Amino acid sequence: MQKSLLNTINSPKELRLLNQKDLPQLALELREFIINVVATKEGHLGASLGVVELTIALHYVFNTPEDRLIWDVGHQAYGHKILTERKDLFHTNRQVGGISGFPKRDESMYDAFGVGHASTSISAALGMAIASQLKGDSEKLHIAVIGDASIAGGMAFEGLNHAGVTRANLLIILNDNAIGIDPSVGALKQYLTNVKKGIQRKNNIIKALNIDYSGPIDGHDIDKIISELKRLKTVKGPKFLHLITTKGKGLKQAEENQVTYHAPGKFDVSTGDIISNTPSEFSKYQDVFGYTIVELAKQNKNIVGITPAMPTGSSLKYMMADMPERAFDVGIAEQHAVTLAAGMATQGLIPFCNIYSTFLQRAYDQIIHDVALQKLPVIFCLDRAGLVGEDGATHHGVFDLSYLRCIPNLIVFAPRNEIELRNIMYTAQLGLQHPIAIRYPRGTGVTVDWKQPFSKIEIGKGVPLKAGNSLAVLSIGTISRNVEEAIKSSGFPEAIAHYDMRFVKPLDEPLLHSIFKKYPTIITVEDNSVKGGFGSAILEFAATNNHKNTIKVLGIPDTFIEHGSVMELQKSIGLDVAGLREFFGLFLQ
């Protein structure tokens, strides 16, 4: 039986001692290792399988970590982690207390830059390269590995534009597999397809930016990659290597179904088939959005849907299939998505702009300058709000209430269940005179029969959910479920009143005045940062109106929350049922 090469490698130092002819065998073992772990522990699969040869070649040719290696987004960095002193920890990937699913600077000296959002690698690597020049260390190489979906993002273009007028020792590697999470879109994607087919040899975009271009070459031919990397070591200034790869390489199902196997959950190692969980009787919030927008669009011809590269994750895919001329995937371009929606709104269209909460952060100026300032009725649907789980700090949507609440002219709403989500979507397209942000979580809801007839929601109105005689709890959004369960199991449910305020902006001030008059102690609960969020809005209301009640604010503490399941993370910060029950009890003893 052939001796395992992977077992002899703990760092790139050992990797570089191998004979080059043995590297294809190492690639097979590395793929098998990734597949075996992800099959049982879950995580991002296809992206890492597609860059196994590239990962080995990079650490074999270059002197990492002295040469700086930056993986854009980081979905594809599992092989990198395994080869850089984390093989024995890889089974803890994305679990509480374990290693992160993304490169992270404080986790390893081999992770040169923390990532998780797309299109950042070129700017970061260029910044490091310029810093090395200024320090007199221009021989050190800085490598950005970026996918064909990410390089279409505006920030990547900005980095390329700057790099072309420098002499920085920068190598940009394009991992071109024609897919991000969903298939890549846009004119640049078509250009790259033409390059791969040999149609587009003249007028090379990269060369036009004064960057040395080579390729395209087979990204699974390790000898070719090594040969080209060694040549590029001798090339001065910024350079660009175009690799053609297959996402999911080495696992038949992952190659054939690249969207599903981006992050497939648990699967059978021997067959590659996904292990089906018991189907939930509840629907995902994203599907409630996806089916509802189709239903509304059939009634209202002015409705359009927009998403930046997340048609599957947002479930806008249903509208794209049903009415493709009215649903737009604009690629990884959140700023463009928001201002595109603004432009559409000026012409009487009703744009539903669906962006993950953590990604909308990237379009903050556009929300303020292009939408709110002009009072354009764009409907922002913020998926993945609150804690999202194993993706961790880069993906938790826990700042949206804070960063949106301070913007004039903007309505901010958080539905507590699927019916409320449907009804606010219905209400928003009836002719609001202001933009509105609707935030809802990842995962399934709590209502089996959510497809109810539409009902208009009065803007700025909260609702009492339960009466009480001693203490009032004000919640916003789906965290109300935990509040409800905590009150029921508290031992003194009759003492606690519960209100779903629904709107963070505008607040239901008449309802708040009545609550403050009746209850001496008020507790606010949200799955947003305690700094500047819903609780802060209640504190401001109390101060403005000279209310002297005791107010306690519960939410996400002023720190970045790491990875783990949503339930584990809620427990760690006291937002689970038991934590809330215990906190409520402090005021009723």
Describe the structure.
The chain is 37% helix and 15% strand. The chain has 24 helices and 17 strands. The chain folds into three domains: 6-262, Thiamin diphosphate (ThDP)-binding fold, Pyr/PP domains (Rossmann fold), CATH 3.40.50.970; 285-439, Thiamin diphosphate (ThDP)-binding fold, Pyr/PP domains (Rossmann fold, 3-Layer(aba) Sandwich); 463-585, Rossmann fold (3-Layer(aba) Sandwich), CATH 3.40.50. The strands form three sheets. A seven-stranded mixed beta sheet has the order 7-6-8-9-11-10-15, with helices on both faces. It has a five-stranded parallel beta sheet with strand order 1-2-3-5-4, sandwiched between helices. By secondary structure, it is an alpha/beta fold. It starts with 11 loop residues before the first helix and ends with a helix.
Describe the secondary structure blueprint for this structure:
Blueprint: H1 12-15, H2 23-41, H3 46-49, H4 52-61, E1 68-71, H5 78-86, H6 121-134, E2 142-147, H7 154-163, E3 170-176, H8 187-197, H9 205-208, E4 212-218, H10 222-232, E5 239-244, H11 252-256, H12 285-299, E6 303-307, H13 311-314, H14 317-322, E7 327-329, H15 334-346, E8 350-356, H16 357-360, H17 364-372, E9 379-383, H18 400-405, E10 411-413, H19 418-428, E11 436-439, E12 463-466, E13 471-475, H20 480-488, E14 496-500, E15 503-505, H21 509-518, E16 521-529, H22 534-544, E17 550-556, H23 566-572, H24 577-585
Parallel strand pairs: 1-2, 2-3, 3-5, 4-5, 6-7, 6-8, 8-9, 9-11, 10-11, 13-14, 13-16, 16-17
Antiparallel strand pairs: 10-15, 12-14
Helix pairs in contact: 4-10, 6-7, 12-19, 15-17, 20-24
